[in-house]
Amino acid sequence: MKKNYFGFAWLFMLLFVSQISFSQAALEESEFGTLIIDYLKYNKEELNLETADIEDIVVRDSYQDDAGVNYIYLNQTYQGIDIFNAISTVVVKDNKVFYYANRFMNDIANKINTNTASQSPESAIYALANHFELGMVNGLVQLEKTGNTYVYSKAGISQRDINVELVYAPTNDGLTLAWDVVVFANDNSHWYSVRIDATNNDIITINDFLLTCTFEKDHTHLDQEEEMNFYNQMISPSSVLVDGASYNVFALPAESPNHGPRQLVVNPASPVASPFGWHDENGVPGPEHTTTRGNNVFAQEDRDGQVFTPGYQPDGTSSLTFDFPLDLNQPPAGYEDVAITNLFYLNNMMHDIWYHHGFDERAGNFQANNYGNQGLQRDEVVADAQDGSGLNNATFGTPPDGQNPVMTMFLWSPVGPLNDPLEILNGTATGSYSGVQASFGNPLSTTPIATQLALATDLAADVLDACDPITNTAFLNGKIAIIRRGECEFGVKVLAAQNAGAVAVIMVNNVPDDPIIMGPGAVGASVTIPSIMVNQADGEAIIASLANNANTINATLVNNGPFQVDGDFDNGIIAHEYGHGISNRTTGGPSAANCLFNAEQMGEGWSDWFGLMITMYETDTADDARGIGTFAISQPTTGGGIRPRRYSPDFAINELTYGVTNNPSISQPHGIGSVWATALWDLTWAYIDKYGFDPDLFNGDGGNNKIMELVVQALKMQPCSPGFIDGRDALLAADTLLTGGVDQCTIWEVFAARGLGYNATQGDADIRTDQTEDFSMPPSDDPSLNNCSDLLSVDEFAIGNFNVYPNPTQTELTISTTENLGKASITLIDVNGRVVLSQESSLLGSITINTANLKTGIYILNIKSDTVNYNEKIIKN
Fold first, then answer.
1. Which residue ranges does the record assign to the PA domain (predicted)?
2. pLDDT digits over 604-639, tens only?
3. Is the dihedral of CA 443, 448, 451, 454 positive or negative?
């Protein structure tokens, strides 16, 4: 691995200088303290709060945007100790409380277990290290203390200094005094934020800043191939030269190499968001770096899998020209310059695009230098390309403002077996063999491993599965070990062979099925040698040849392709990961890093939506269903991607509604998030239908630009630990703030169609099984709907003009109207998104639908005409 140590001492200080990233002030001492206190007192009964509940409130974060709107994030405390995640949002406009999103607990005085910590913060660190088996705690030293917040040395268990804060942690029994301990594990797999009981060191709750984007593969669908260059339309015509840098990348809106060709883009930095270019840090004209490092992101290779070790960075020289050759028909290490450049480009584009839509320094964005603006700095993204700590995934870790987030982009396994990686050169098994590479250890190289084969024998006679101690370690040294699949983990077997000196492993399947991708298990992360699995017939033939042939058996292992897929070229996944940073920094304020870990949170949904928004072509239509991550998992652009459904406003393609979040078959958080993204994607097309599409992602005025601003605005306004209803209400409030409410009707119609209607309830946002969906619109006399006079709301249907019965049904369903609503399309859709019934009818009088032949289950009834777009869940008994 090539290394670039230039300036690493500066990086070391940047990443490891400990910071207590926010300072709190008593509410009554703040600028809007009196206004907010009066508001809380006046509304305390409606908010179900006691006087004592609002007597000890502190301002955790506050800032004012360019429009003069103030955002204040309040933390409820008890006797000077913060209640964990009891963070409410107050939006003040024109010296009035414009919006309040409540997350305060009620009757807190009677829920406190104690106000005295009998366990020290040091003992809590030891408890965490023991619980997660992080290793021995060595040299633990207190570095800082401010109020109830402490900073300790890394102590051999953390890659960053350890932050500890005394808090009250909500539990089923009330509020438990606890230590909130933050540790970034040395193996890069977890960035723990853990509440530990301050009386007995029991673990209460666990969060992980390092969000891992698990994948759920699905179907294949419509075509979305585009090879047009829309880059010049994306930036403002008034842009001026920033630093003259050029990058040969898969430029937006291309999602991946499958969606469009590479293009040389010149001077892409926004003069507003990055006024000194992407390679600046000191705010003086002229770049400080000629590599993929700058104010917004530090992109480097990380094949050793250690996030804070210096990695190679391509150099654009003094001309800042990052134009390198690309041949994808080789292992990814051969084109690292291009991969890192693309990662650097996309991170910077995410910074600049969303800066224009409200994610700026004040809101907690990621910059080394804030150029004199509000917010904490020295927190640019550390983005690792071709990361060696995992496969088939990507992660993003977001700490509080002022601390560097970390993005890791992994390689992805190619589809199908390798092209005959194994060749036996002599003996009865001479020939070439296919095999499937493991998901751990180093991949095979295009340079052959040429050596002898050797059976790995262990204490269990005639098994050869290396589940017991290997008995012929000396013989295995320098050879390719042959091991049978058995009862223990693959990582255990391969590590045992590696420890015996084997240079590679051939695993023999023990069943007639095709070879599988071997998983690492508990110890696979320690494996560095390559390994493949061959099928049972081939493997047993090789074993027989070794057992019966008196001569030495020689073989080669080599990577003939297909080669691993580089996630650094999947712009949608990079944007998804960066999106976690946006939603985590904006929800609950920049210093709150734990606000999106509740059961009903929508973080994965926002991230999918961020990726979709920046990869839209001007020629796209609502009919173009979108899959997520199709390039990374080697699907065509028409593939189903990694979510339960492709994103589409068409219920025949994506029928998911709010109620499905109760279903455990929808994963948490990714499946739940995809339901939220489905509603946002529907809303996106409603906005584009109304306002058109503008490819200028910096300064455009199309429907896509408007909803981008709307969503970021809503993220700032919603409370900590939001549920779907909180998210919907924040969008409605954001529309009122930005436009006076001109799109209230549009937002209600879209969300009601997805089960987030007027009477929908989210229950407890920390519980994922208590949601109630509803498809109704607000009452027609609701003043917020004064722009919907030409449309029929579901409330109008409910007064007798429109009725669907019986529900549940057995043999037939009746739709009854008392006035002529015109010709309509009537559709029934099953839970798999299939249209099981479709007909055209005039909505006057009664229409009967035969349901006798339908299977028992749940269906969505959609009735659509020029004046009606109505959805209702139908149960067939």
1. 465-542
2. 999 999 999 999 999 999 999 999 999 999 999 999
3. positive
